[in-house]
Amino acid sequence: MRAVVVADGQVSVEDRRDPVPGPGELLVRVRAAGLNGADMMQLRGFYPPPPGFPTDIPGLELAGEVVGLGEGANRFGLGARVMSLVGGAAQAELAVVDERVAMPVPTSLGWVAAGGFPEVFITAHDALVSQCDLRSGERLLVTGAAGGVGTAAVQIGVALGGRVVASVRDPALRPAVAELGAEPIDPADSEDHGPYDVVLELVGGDAVPANVRALSGGGRMAVIGVGAGARVELDLLALMSRRARVMGSMLRNRSTAEKALASRRVAEQLLPLVGAGGLRVLVAAAIDLESAAAAYARFQAGGKLGKVVLTIGGTTATGS
Ligand SMILES: NC(=O)c1ccc[n+]([C@@H]2O[C@H](COP(=O)([O-])OP(=O)(O)OC[C@H]3O[C@@H](n4cnc5c(N)ncnc54)[C@H](OP(=O)(O)O)[C@@H]3O)[C@@H](O)[C@H]2O)c1
Question: What is the pTM of this model?
Answer without folding.
Answer: 0.97
